Amino acid sequence: MVPLPLFKFAALFVRHVSKYGANWIKVQAHDHPKFRAVAARYGQTMHQINMRMAVTLLRDAAAEKRAREKAEAPTVKTEEQMRHDEAMKEKNAAKEKAEKKEASKSIWRRRFRPLPENKAVDLFADVIGDSFILLIASGLILYEYIRAKGKPDVNAEKIAELSEKLKELDQREIELEEAERARQKRVETLEQALEEMRKASGKKRSLPCAS
């Protein structure tokens, strides 16, 4: 088994400790009087926000469903009916827009039934505990990113090394080609010299025969 780096063990330890920290926060939210009062107050605020968002999303989904069903309904209409429907559609659209705007305002100003104190404290404690764990995890990820960024890139170094070797091989190949061309040129020069020597010796032999 390959041993994990020391940082990995430290990260696991910190994450494990952060869970105990989150649980400690939840316990203190119930046991500590001042903390419990703060938790109950902000827990109720979170509950109100959750309820308003849920109602807003449900109303938007219902409106979209009605509009989609109306648009997909197959009908055959005359030109007069189409003009009438267009006028009614514009009128209804303006009315729905105004109603939606008014409903949206009323939802965000509306006060829903508050939670019991224990449930409000639980909600606040859960959010704070999970946020604490998320904060620790984000810090570890950020630290690991910075630490990894400061290290030399092994893959980049390998790629640079391979590129350098490839350049050396290309240069060596060019040198070998030049040496081969020079050798071929010398061979051609020698062959030409030998051919001239053969021609010269042939002429010398033909001269005594002619005399």
Mind explaining what this structure looks like?
- The longest helix is centred in the C-terminal third of the chain and has 57 residues.
- The chain is elongated, with a radius of gyration of 44 Å.
- It has five helices and no strands.
- It has 211 residues and is mainly alpha-helical.
- Keywords: Coiled coil.
- This is OPA3-domain-containing protein.
- Belongs to the OPA3 family.
Brief overview:
It is built from five helices and no strands.
Structural class, by secondary structure, is mainly alpha
Major sheet characteristics: none
- The helix/strand series, from N terminus to C terminus, equals HHHHH
Give the tally of structural domains.
2
The best one-word shape is elongated
Beta-strand residue percentage: under 5%
Compute the average pLDDT: 75
Which percent bin holds the helix content? over 70%
By DSSP (H or I, 4+ residues per run), the number of helices equals: 5
The parts where pLDDT drops under 50 for at least 5 residues are: none
Q: What would you report as the Rg, rounded to the nearest angstrom?
A: 44 Å
Distance between the termini: 99 Å
Total beta strand runs: 0
Which secondary structure elements does this structure contain, and how are they paired or packed?
Layout: H1 6-31, H2 33-72, H3 79-109, H4 117-150, H5 154-210
GO cellular component, one term: mitochondrion
Coiled coil: 159-200
Keywords: Coiled coil
Quickly list its features:
mainly alpha; 89% helix; 211 residues; 2 domains
